[in-house]
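Form P-L/3: holo structure prediction, ligand flavin mononucleotide.
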Amino acid sequence: MRGLTRWCAYTLLALALGGPTWTWAQPTPGDEVVLPAPVTDGRVSLEAAIAGRRSVKEFADTALTWEEVGQLAWAAQGITEPEKGFRAAPSAGAMYPLHLYLVTPDGLYHYVPAGHKLERRPLADALATFRAVTANQPSIQQAPLTVIITAAFGPMRERFGERAEGFVYLEAGHVGQNLQLQARALGLGSLPIGGFDPARVAEALALPTDHTVVYLMPIGHPKPPADAG
Ligand SMILES: Cc1cc2nc3c(=O)[nH]c(=O)nc-3n(C[C@H](O)[C@H](O)[C@H](O)COP(=O)(O)O)c2cc1C
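OUTPUT (holo model):
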């Protein structure tokens, strides 16, 4: 019954916020997708998002909209101070070592904060390939979107020496929390995942060789509980 109540809460929230559309239809994905402008005054309070945040492990087979994808990417790494290029999550020395890769049914994308856009990565069967190397995580097998957070450690080590690694993981935590709270505010569920093989994921998705995969976040509409009718 608790599952049903939680699912109803997520579903009502999603419907109140405009309701899901059922395809990735607009804009048509190409080499570059300019994402819809983010909303910066949503209807869900920060306190409600914190109170309702939960790790959701089962997802419905429902695609996300580009608006939802754009909103999530913005909350994670969007530019919120255009003059200086500062982003939604803090960064030691404003070095911004983190990158977002998005695995979707349409393929693999890299988020580019400047211009709030996605660049398509030329990888066939990205979703199936990614799911094969994360088979130990059932939630990833269901989610219509997984955000992969990678880090370029090199410049951070040059500047911060032995403290660099900690700084990168702290920053990834900020990004992960922004993602979870934004997902909740959109009526979506999310799950932070640390249990994966970083080298295997990076190799399978042909990610840049100077990047390390630090965090995974599958996101989608929570699956209705079995007693939802
Ligand atoms: C760093 C980190 C790594 C995690 N790794 C996994 C994981 O590999 N698989 C998983 O199902 N959940 C993972 N979780 C989610 C936790 O299981 C979840 O946060 C915990 O059960 C508390 O539930 P809550 O997030 O709803 O408060 C991880 C959470 C964190 C913060």
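COMMENT: The chain has one domain: 2-228.
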